[in-house]
Amino acid sequence: MLFITQNKKQMANNNYYDPADLRKFGKITEWSEELGTKFFDYYGKVFEEGALTAREKALIALAVAHTEQCPYCIDAYTKDTLQRGVTKEQMMEAIHVGAAIKSGATLVHGTMMMNKVNKLEM
Amino acid sequence: MPVTETKKSLHKRHDDLAQANKQLEILSSGIFADGELPTFAEKIKETNQFPLRPKKLEILQINVGYMCNQVCEHCHVDAGPDRKEIMTWETMEQCLEVIKNTGAHTLDLTGGAPEMNPNFRRFVEEASKAGIKDFIVRSNLTIIRANKKYHDLPEFFKKHNVHVVSSMPHWTRGKTDKQRGEGVFDKSIKALQELNAVGYGMPDSDLRLDLVYNPNGAYLPSDQAGMEKDFKKALMEDFGIQFHNLFAITNLPIARFLDYLIASENYEDYMYQLVEAYNPAAVANVMCTNTISISWDGWLYDCDFNQMLDLKVNSKVKHISEYNEDVLNDRNIIISQHCYGCTAGAGSSCQGTVA
């Protein structure tokens, strides 16, 4: 009920994104408990220390948060990496990795264009 | 950051937040008054841990004065060179009487910079004769390099088998200086090397050297063991420094850290983080359950944080002059919303995590 009231208040503000919504992430289980719970169990497991350290995973998440341009994820993983002692320089380098893959992914499709041009032209 | 004037204490600036009642008012209003977040008392009631009661007394923590050579942004004591509250020899003598007869196994001297108390050395010499198992001095490291008269502190600590616990917010210069002031990192590194040189922090050494990490802003500390590994690797590789353990301590929302949280508009988010990370298992071992904190003027508190909020123990015995451990141990611990800082995640105390 509280969620609905807050949600209506927020809609009235005409904002698609509200930083306070991040705190409500856990509430997605309320409208689909089984799937929501499965998701959070999976999510929690993924970020546990494994073959990669929790810090390495947090840095990957930070880079992906940027390529996905997810404000909530950027908020969460900036805080998370700071908590794990990651420096600003390391954080920015991780984002450049994401940016490089994004731009590389665009450019590598240039080979498709080149193939097509070569096929079409005499 | 930095968002506040850091050269002077809140007291010197006559800031509202220098007053304990003003801080307590903030901690009990807003999100805690309108029911958005549960108060600490409501939270511990959920797990039948209210009222919070002491267990066996293990630690006597004595704050010998709020004077410090640094003005750190996050300081819960609001310490600095402009603070004049210093424990007198008369009060120290009362403390020595207590130390001789206490059942506590740990004596923990803190400040400010405890070394700046003019009677610090005399007090340490006398206190070390009491045979307390673990005798801690919380040294900010830079004091060792601040003035010639402090240069021999590593030898002095060694002579009295003092366990040195020192603040070191990060293994990089930038993060450390931002929190603690320009040049603090280089001085701290030099001081750590000097402590190492007399035997402190060596793997098999009985001369204990532990570091304290606390976050550089509005976020909680991460896994203590992981941070310790990172600190050890970086300090060894870059500076050849060794130490024993790292204590990860959560910043509590009081004094200058509260001022920072409010000024940077992080207060609500930070309180949410603390409440969301609440861990009932940490409540059972919070330091107020095994500690008595004594202020520079001899008043008794449940912890150093309650001391700064002027929340004296809820006991007939309130002052060192009338100290009685049995009477003191039969009391309810005073709590407010700042206590969430000690129960978040793996918990937090002056000895690091508790859960």
Order of helices and strands of chain B: HHEHEHEHHEHHEHEHHHEEHH
Tell me roughly what share of residues is in helical segments of chain B: 25-40%
Percent strand of chain B: 5-15%
Number of helices of chain A: 6
The CATH topology assignment of the largest domain in chain A is: AhpD-like
Globally, the shape of chain A reads extended
Under CATH at level 1, the class of the largest domain in chain A stands as Mainly Alpha
Q: What is the CA–CA distance across the termini of chain A?
A: 68 Å
Q: Outline the biggest β-sheet of chain B.
A: 8 strands, mixed
Low-confidence stretches of chain A: 1-5
Q: What is the CATH first-level class name of the domain at 52-247 and 289-325 in chain B?
A: Alpha Beta
Rg of chain B (C-alpha, Å): 19 Å
Order of strands, main sheet of chain B, comes to 6-5-4-3-2-1-7-8
**Domain tally of chain A:** 2
What does this structure look like?
- The complex is a heterodimer of chains A (122) and B (355).
- Chain A is mainly α.
- The longest helix of chain A has 21 residues, at 88-108.
- Chain A has six helices and no strands.
- Residues 1-5 of chain A have low confidence and may be disordered.
- The N and C termini of chain A lie far apart (68 Å).
- Helices cover 69% and strands 0% of the residues of chain A.
- In chain A, α3 (54-67) runs antiparallel to α4 and α3 packs across α5 (88-108).
- Chain A folds into two domains: 1-46, no CATH class; 52-122, AhpD-like (Up-down Bundle).
- With 355 residues, chain B is of the alpha/beta class.
- Chain B has a domain at 52-247 and 289-325: TIM Barrel (Alpha-Beta Barrel), CATH 3.20.20.
- Chain B has helices spanning 20-28, 40-46, 89-101, 120-128, 142-146, 153-159, 173-180, 184-197, 224-239, 255-263, 267-276, 280-283, 304-308, 325-329, and strands at 59-63, 106-110, 134-139, 163-167, 209-213, 246-248, 291-294, 300-301.
- Chain B has an eight-stranded mixed sheet with strand order 6-5-4-3-2-1-7-8.
- The radius of gyration of chain B is 19 Å and the shape is globular.
- Classes of the chains: A mainly alpha (122), B alpha/beta (355).
- Chain A binds chain B through residues 19, 23, 53-55, 79, 82-85, 87-88, and chain B through 170-172, 174-175, 215-217, 219-223, 226-227, 230, 269, 272, 276.
